[in-house]
Amino acid sequence: MTLPERTLGRSGLRVTRLGLGLAAVGRPAYINLGRARDLPAARTPDALFGRTAELLDAAYAAGIRYVDVARSYGRAEEFLTRWLADRRVAPHALTVGSKWGYRYTAGWTVDAAVHEQKELSLARFTAQLAESRALLRDHLDLYQIHSATPESLGDATLLDALVSGRRAGAYRAVGLTLSGPTSARALELALAARAGGERVFDVVQATFNCLEPSLAALLARAHDAGLGVIAKEVFANGRLTDANTLADDASLVQGLHAAAAARGCSMDQLALAFVLDHPFVDVALSGAATPAQLASHAGALAVTIDDDARASLAAITEPPGRYWETRGRLPWQ
């Protein structure tokens, strides 16, 4: 299968418009709805590597050429490295993005009190870059600050180090991911960031979906300025899929079902098609936990968003504060 390709901003990295994120399968617990039905009952490292390999095989066969991991996604980097070696995938045959800043702390349990710990310091960057490079080596194309904060983007020493890593060839592009109500301010700072006379950031990865589209204008501006744009949480951690059984979302789910049925597609396909309908989005991440979900997501590229669909989806948009408050209540499961 051939998927539409893009160059990720000025980075020169080639990507497909649909990418695969491994957050949901690199560790036993995550905040996506529906995990109990999606993952093996015994979430051992071997079982989750097996599921990860299934997904990567299906993604590669479907033409997907962008994969997203992070230091905090349990063993996601390790699983990806093992799959790349097993399948003898050469560097740059697909584009790999990873992230630093969070440390996985759950000890491979579902009910840990704390699943990850955040620190956006120069010391954490230096340590985690060494860890990512030890695994991914020349496959590491894009390295991103994980959930960058306005404070971290004011750290001149850290920004210098990010640019130095790119110059030294530790990775080919520098990025940041955004999460929470300070995302707009962080992106404004990222667009202005300079170190050693050059732009710091090549790529931005942000939450963008039909419930929380508030960054649209700013992401379009970033794209126009030469940054690649990756959309994450396109299904709102499962709220825009049939896994959503939250009582407060009953009317949301009913309306999405009706809108999707009218267009002969599924809820998840309609949600993903909404994201892909925005020309500033270079890659939309599928966080599929099963090959069937991944196949459904690939099918979204054939769904057309018309004016009626845009109006229907605009009607369900939530205020950012409410969206992030709801996301903050989703349990690790």
List the domain count as a whole number: 1
Topology order in helix (H) and strand (E) letters = EEEHHEHEEEHEHEHEEEHEHHEHHH
Summing up helix and strand content along with how strands pair, one would put the structural category as: alpha/beta
- Please write the CATH class name: Alpha Beta
Q: Please, how many helices?
A: 12
Strand order of the largest sheet: 3-4-5-8-9-12-13-14
Rounded to an integer, what's the Rg over CA atoms?
19 Å
Classify the helix fraction into a percent range. Answer: 25-40%
Instruction: State the oligomer.
Output: single chain
The N- to C-terminal Cα distance equals: 34 Å
Could you characterize the architecture of this molecule?
The relative contact order is 0.16. This protein has 12 helices and 14 strands. It is globular and about 50 Å long. A hairpin with a 2-residue loop joins strand 10 and strand 11. It is an alpha/beta fold and 333 residues long. An 8-stranded parallel barrel has the order 3-4-5-8-9-12-13-14, surrounded by 7 helices. A two-stranded antiparallel ribbon has the order 1-2.
Write the layout of secondary structure elements.
Blueprint (H helix, E strand, L loop, with lengths): L4 E3 L6 E3 L1 E4 L13 H4 L6 H17 L4 E3 L7 H11 L8 E6 L1 E3 L11 E3 L3 H15 L3 E6 L10 H13 L4 E6 L4 H10 L1 E2 L2 E2 L3 E5 L8 H9 L3 E5 L17 H13 L4 H10 L6 E4 L4 H9 L7 H8 L5 H10 L4
Parallel strand pairs: 3-4, 3-14, 4-5, 5-8, 8-9, 9-12, 12-13, 13-14
Antiparallel strand pairs: 1-2, 6-7, 10-11
